[in-house]
């Protein structure tokens, strides 16, 4: 039975666990301290949460106040979030990768009163802008020796260490325990829980207002959709908790179902942490799964001889088994026997790299290339694809556990209506819900519009943008293009990404880019061609593969020139561009390209924290190189 009650609030979730699922001594979280994984019980966590709440009340934090965080994933995020939520304050998280200017904007727009800061690097960023943020009264560093970074500065805000906040809060708790309980019970489901600022591929960030009901009902319906999530499960968390996907689908889902949260040390140590923690469930973005696919394919096909033949044989068997699974059937005795051998020789070794205990992965934040999903499914790594936005509290559709349709984002969750609307005429072709699902349903393509429990309250301080996003009938316009395919929602592209060539032909970049991303020689690709006669691209090859193939040192990637002009490398990339172009219509094919030395990055403002390309930024940053590429092609003609 789903443990999440209707009309609950975010702080109610953790209290429900210790009341109805686990004893308070049960492990809630685990993180690595030096070389050891250390468990934290619900009792330990709640004691710290209550102490921080007492401190907040003592310094005058009121219901509705915005309290900010800029910190990497870990227990401190949970303590601070739960402490502010249970007294009715609002979580205003900030991505650690944002620039100083963006941090300043969010602090001022949200009117944040305090900010929790995770490490010295982030602390220095905050110190540079905090005097321009008059609402910020206190900075709370969550690390030791922070005093040396601010001792010579004249700050308008006070600075108090997080350890001190907790210790002082413990002494204040007897005085404020009753007030905390009253505040927690006074929170309404309709009250504001969080402001999550959209990273956005265009324009300035907008604060998405999400209520307690948005989060709790999304968690409730998510657990209805995937009842395979159990209190014994272990989630490994590595995506930023400042993003709605990880917040809802890992942290709050775990609090809803009573699962244990393990916090990865970093993206660089993720592979090591997976082997150590042996998670049963993980949320991830497509790029991570592409890397798992690329590494496994490289290992399997580069060995040569009999090993490569066995790998290819096993992979083909896995694909055959997937066809049965998609139709809800089981493979016959002969195929089952062969699969056992393939699993022992090939598949189990790949799964060991993920810890060996994965029940499934959930992929979100972008479209998963179909070939990657098929590969992982073939080797026994189940991937459930989901779809949602910040404005829909994360997932509002997800693949059912028992039915994979790779290249789609799953079945609509209960409590949500999804429409497909004609971009030009605004006619709604179809409206689908969880209950209208038909496994063979195919709809026309258009903009995806959403109405239901997960849709945001609006954009903070932006009534005009709210009215533009949510129409008079309550439909939120996602800006995503898609359709229903085999009953599941399928995302084609972003409306704002659409390229219209000089002949008026509409080209959606994502499916074209995904075709070229099948190449092991292409790590990132950015399509160009709006109002142009033909398509070109900026391509980034994988650094390790370049180094290995052309015997390159790190100095090659430190050169000041942005683009690689070595003919041997360009021709090497061109081989795969030509090969995969054959899978596309002529007007979608890349006619020319330039090879970028280093990847597009968040630091340069070229991609969002969920790794989506910021089209306007990239086109502006490389306008000269793009124009020269078209000029060269015109001269060649």
UniProtKB/TrEMBL annotation:
Ranges where the AMP-dependent synthetase/ligase domain occurs: 33-460
UniProt-listed CDD domains: VL_LC_FACS_like
Alphabetical list of PROSITE patterns matching this protein: AMP_BINDING
GO terms under cellular component: membrane
Any one Gene Ontology molecular-function term assigned to this protein's record: long-chain fatty acid-CoA ligase activity
InterPro entries linked: AMP-binding_CS (IPR020845), AMP-dep_synth/lig_dom (IPR000873), ANL_N_sf (IPR042099)
Signal peptide region: none
Keyword Ligase appears in the UniProt entry: yes
SUPFAM superfamilies: Acetyl-CoA synthetase-like (SSF56801)
Keywords from the named record: ATP-binding, Ligase, Nucleotide-binding
Protein's name in the database: Long-chain fatty acid--CoA ligase
């Amino acid at each position: 039975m789903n443990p999440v009650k209707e009309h609950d609030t975010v702080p109610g979730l953790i209290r429900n666990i210790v009341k109805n699922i686990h004893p308070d001594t049960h492990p809630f979280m685990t993180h690595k301290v030096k070389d050891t994984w250390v468990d934290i019980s619900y009792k330990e966590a709640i004691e710290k949460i209550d102490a921080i709440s007492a401190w907040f009340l003592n310094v005058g934090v009121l219901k509705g106040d915005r309290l900010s965080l800029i910190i990497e994933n870990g227990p401190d995020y949970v303590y601070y979030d739960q402490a502010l939520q249970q007294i009715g304050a609002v979580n205003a998280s900030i991505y650690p990768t944002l620039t100083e200017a963006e941090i300043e904007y969010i602090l001022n727009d949200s009117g944040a009163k305090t900010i929790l800061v995770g490490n010295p690097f982030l602390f220095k960023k905050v110190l540079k802008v905090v005097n321009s943020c008059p609402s910020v009264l206190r900075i709370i560093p969550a690390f030791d020796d922070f005093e040396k970074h601010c001792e010579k500065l004249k700050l308008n805000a006070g600075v108090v260490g997080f350890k001190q906040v907790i210790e002082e809060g413990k002494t204040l708790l007897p005085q404020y325990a009753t007030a905390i309980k009253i505040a927690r019970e006074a929170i309404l489901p309709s009250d504001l829980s969080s402001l999550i600022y959209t990273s956005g591929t265009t324009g300035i960030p907008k604060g998405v207002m999400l209520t307690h009901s948005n989060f709790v009902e999304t968690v409730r319906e998510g657990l209805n959709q995937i009842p395979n999530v159990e209190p014994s499960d272990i989630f490994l968390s590595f995506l930023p908790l400042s993003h709605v996907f990880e917040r809802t689908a890992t942290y709050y889902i775990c609090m809803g179902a009573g699962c244990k949260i393990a916090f990865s040390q970093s993206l660089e140590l993720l592979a090591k942490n997976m082997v150590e923690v042996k998670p049963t469930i993980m949320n991830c973005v497509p790029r991570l799964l592409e890397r798992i696919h690329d590494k496994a394919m490289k290992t399997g096909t580069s060995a040569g001889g009999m090993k490569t033949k066995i790998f290819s044989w096993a992979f083909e068997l896995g694909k055959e088994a997937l066809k049965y699974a998609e139709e809800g059937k089981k493979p016959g005795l002969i195929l089952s026997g062969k699969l056992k051998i393939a699993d022992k020789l090939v598949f189990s070794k790949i799964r060991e790299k993920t810890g060996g205990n994965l029940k499934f992965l959930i992929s979100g934040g972008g479209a998963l290339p179909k070939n990657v999903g098929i590969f992982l499914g073939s080797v026994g790594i189940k991937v459930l694809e989901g779809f949602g936005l910040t404005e829909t509290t994360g997932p509002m559709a997800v693949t059912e556990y028992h039915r994979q349709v790779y290249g789609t984002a799953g079945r609509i969750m209960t409590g949500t209506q999804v429409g497909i609307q004609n971009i030009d005429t605004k006619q709604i072709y179809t409206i689908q819900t969880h209950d209208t699902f038909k496994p063979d349903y195919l709809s026309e393509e258009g903009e995806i519009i959403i109405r239901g429990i997960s849709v945001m309250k609006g954009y903070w301080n932006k009534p005009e943008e709210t009215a533009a996003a949510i129409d008079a009938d309550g439909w939120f316009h996602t800006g995503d293009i898609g359709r229903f395919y085999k009953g599941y929602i399928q995302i084609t592209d972003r409306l704002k990404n659409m390229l219209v060539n000089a002949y008026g032909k509409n080209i959606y970049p994502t499916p074209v880019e995904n075709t070229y991303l099948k190449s092991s020689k292409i790590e990132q690709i950015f399509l160009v061609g709006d109002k142009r006669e033909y398509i070109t691209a900026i391509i980034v090859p994988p650094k390790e593969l370049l180094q290995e193939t052309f015997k390159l040192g790190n100095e090659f990637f430190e050169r000041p020139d942005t683009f690689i002009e070595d003919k041997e490398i360009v021709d090497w990339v061109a081989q795969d561009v030509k090969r995969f172009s054959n899978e596309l219509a002529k007007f979608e094919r890349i006619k020319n390209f330039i090879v970028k030395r280093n990847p597009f990055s968040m630091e340069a403002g070229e991609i969002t924290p969920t790794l989506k390309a910021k089209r306007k930024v990239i086109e502006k940053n490389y306008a000269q190189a793009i124009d020269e590429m078209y000029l060269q092609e015109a001269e060649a003609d």
